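An instance as discussed:

___
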Amino acid sequence: MVSTANATSDGEIAQGIRDIILEATRHNGGHLASNLGVVELSMALHRVFRSPRDKIIFDVSHQCYAHKILTGRGHRFSTLRATHGLSGFTSPRESSHDIFFCGHAGTALSSALGMAVARDRLRQEYHVIAVIGDASLTNGLTLEALNNIGKNRLIIVLNDNGYAISENVGSIARYLNGISRHCFYNNVKNFLKKYIARGALGRHLVGWLSAIKGAIKALFLPSSFFEHHGLKYIGPVDGHNVAELIENLQFCKEQKRPMLLHVKTRKGYGDPRSESCPEKTHGISIAGGKAMGYSAVFGKKLCQLAEQNPKIVAITAAMADGTGLNFFRERYPGRFFDVGIAEGHAITFAAGLSKAGLLPVCAIYSTFLQRAFDQIFHDIALQNLPMIIAIDRAGLCANDGPTHHGLFDIAFLRAIPDLIIMQPKDPRELEAMLEAAVTFNAPCCIRYPRGVEVSANGGAGGNGTGGGLPAAPAEIQLGRSEVMIWGTDICLIALGEKVGVALEIVRRLPQLSFTVINARFVKPLDGALFTDCARRHRFLYTIEDHVKSGGFGSAVVEFLAGENLAKGVHIFAWPDVFIPHASRDDDLKKMFHFTATDMAEKIQTDYLHTH
């Protein structure tokens, strides 16, 4: 718990929590603005409810920092997102107060409803509280759960700050804004209750208001959306007034029906910089310098291609800044679409655009793309519709941990016919792949990591590949790999930035003769080249930033097995476990023996055992 020994007010306690959050994110990065906005709400929740007996479920749990501090983890908060430290999201492995893993939006209402139903079936007694952001309300899973609540007793706290990462979009956001602008009904009711109800006339007026509240709400509110779904709606209330929050939460706690408390907060509250630019401080990165990464290279290159091709349009699921599409949004606002936190809709919306003659480019983080598997299969690939899916954050995302590692996309995508799947070895090759994808006239996925940077003039830097990469990539031909080095002893087939690791292995084992191949394509594979390499070399190793199960290496083994050439093929990839969070990628690579040194030692041992 936060120490209150020197705190004489809720404001001082709240400021103490904010100081802890600001200090930790300054050193370790993390979600700043969203957490600053829910400090008072978190305080009120923990005063009214008894966690972990009462189940508080956060959606998305990047607003759980104050909750962690209030549940005995304040003394460890300096370890946030660090190796062996606190997770940046709720984690049941970390604390019994963290009820549910949650790194993706839209899950809290379904899981809370399930817990409430189970509680009642088992004749237990506790409260279930789902704390959801207004952006999560647009998610399809949330709407599906909302449609199924019925009369089940649970409490939904709608944290309405008007933002996902950037400002919210769509009709539900406009609806919530409409409620906030039309507070006359609540103000009249509260006034009558507070100042007039003492007399007979006041009691008569309150009774009259209650009797015709449906008509009055219809007059003063844009809609009664929540009440049509069986929820008793209360609000909006000031999310930075602890006393008001406690009063309303206590009322919700006493009810025997589903309740929705609409709380208005300000993202970044209490920190002038965060409050003035909440989209800039949603996520704080500790990476320094003026270099730009893959996302920025992607966004700027897409703008260039759109200038040449008026059919190109861009789609984001509430992640314009994170994916680099902010550049496209600024330059081509009429060709840019933000669909909110709705990845499945983003893909099928793109299918409609493609079917009608446009060329959609949809940028989604790898971890969120898995939510749209059915749409990629059924709406894109089955109809072989031309579009480009830019898979950002593919590979390790050390600080964010298991909910955000992009280590599974190859496995679920390569099972789908007619998809093209590429990965560039560096940001300049990403530009070349985008140019090629525009011409393929087919559904095409390009996956690339975060964290690899290039200098402002476009030269490679900081990617660990040394000086072995060409200044400009060769032309990208469908299904064709790039041979970096020809040798005789060992063949290394590397995917993406792991080409740099392959070149490092070559430097570490100068006594061996290596062939190094930049695979470029996961699908279609360069079967002719890989067959030739398997025949020429006793040992063939694949290297990828993905889980071993179903990944690129598995595809190579499956292909070569069909040619009776799989003997001597080995896969370097992540193991079949959920990889934890850590301060740096390198910490996890050492933990799982996935460094260039580890691979070089394995290769040397294998080679010596046969000679």
